[in-house]
Amino acid sequence: MGAILSQLGHLFVQSIPTVIFVFVLLVILSRIFFRPLIGVLKQREAMTTGALARAREQTAAAEAKTREYELAFQTARQEVYRQREADRQAGLKEREVTLQKAREQADVLVRDAQLELAAQVEAAKREMAPSSKSMASEIMEAVLGNGPSASNRGGGRP
Length: 158
Fold this sequence. Notes:
Blueprint (H helix, E strand, L loop, with lengths): L1 H143 L3 H6 L5
């Protein structure tokens, strides 16, 4: 067993330069390669996280602007509908007033026409009243057969 221990001691002494070399290599690689690599990875992660955070913030801001735009658009649409309804009501009122005026004018014209027609009827009756009696007697004589001598008699007097 002593031989094994002495061989192990000898291997240990021989491996010291290798261990030191590996340790120095580890320190050199750590300072030259791993530290910058870890720094770049951390920076990349920070940038990615920052970019994601900024993207979330911008998304939230865009959603807020979208809601604000939709609210403003809805308000404008409601205002347009209100204005359109007010214009429609005003148009209906104006139309009703115009129709009422037209009806009144038509009523006046109809009344005037009726009065004029009644006056013409009365004038025609007055004109026809004297001649209607003579015509009635002439028709009666013609129908009853009194002949033409009766029509020549008095020129149409009754």
